[in-house]
Amino acid sequence: MKTLSLDTPQGRIEGLYDSAFTAVADAFVANFTERDEVGASVALTLEGRKVVDLWGGRRARNGAPWERDTVATVFSATKGAMAVCAHMLADRGALDLDEKISHYWPEFAVNGKEDARVGMTLDHSVGVPHVRDAVPAGGFYDYDAMVKRVAAEPAFWAPGTRVGYHAITMAWTVGELIHRAARKRLGQFFQDEVAKPLGLEFWIGMPRELHGRISPMIPATPDQPWLDSRFVKAALGAAGTPTQLFMRDFLLVDANSADCHAAEIGSANGLANARALAGLYAPLANGGSITNTRLVGPDTLTRMARTSMASHDDATLLARMNFSEGFMKAIDNRRTPDVVNSSLLIADGAFGHVGAGGSLGFADPACRMSFGYAMNRMGTGLLLNPRGQSLVDAAYGALGYRSNASGAWSH
Fold it and tell me: Global pTM?
């Protein structure tokens, strides 16, 4: 492993990398010198071995250094961690993804949701992408209240008939099913069964005594292409649409609030660094197990990677989206009109999840690679911006992949 220690105008970059992945280190440095990265980390494993572990910059412009153990809000990359928990329970026979939700949660089976199935909560087709009535400030931090609201909410569409990104409500649809199947809440299950066994610096509801490790998030600066995008125009348009409610709800998750950091929002408020994101997916890139920790078996792993719902026009995001049960697949919106920074160019067999502003974790079982990227300066768009995608591209290039012109990286 080679050592990187480099001063940039944004602060020092440090860490280790295998010389075969020099291109990833170069892309990480370029993010700071050319793409206005402020603070970030990137990590890769290959066949379970750490091959990149880099971090650096600052927690704020001209602020304290981003240290090795700094974590940041990874927003919807948290969904991948939550989905792993659901699939672990399915693998153990405690949660049947093909069973009706009513079997576990009778209160949910009302207002058009009577026949909804568990897997639909994972692939964004269950039909409750939002709650229609206003949510008070801090309302998302009250788990029990939000579970009741989501259970009572009338379906926006017949469950399973279309796909629309469940940006926030997935915290309580999937989260409550995990709670009932595991007999413990998601945040505790994740710590006990995933984070601690794998040694991950990753929390869904972080203890307040650890909050000093958190880097504040720097909101994206809207530019004209983003303001002119189809999504933003719809989000600022007619009230009550899934897109408009997405914008309303996103603004209610204050990623720089101590109350948010301590809450359990399994769709949106995970705190992690790149090493934790790559570590989460390392077992999934290697048959479901790594060292002495087994997450899932081969049949469950196959299901995790298989596309479950896809659309050229997601009901919430208004762009092409491809989902397996709980994860994002390769998504190519580069040639979609009026769509900005809304692609995820990975290989076809890979699966993971992007977080708002550009964080990412994923597994690629074909090449046995796992990847993580976390940062504090958010970018515009729905998925990856050039900072995160450049790191993914460098990783695949280092492994001999030829092109992503097809919409997914291939040899």
Answer: 0.98
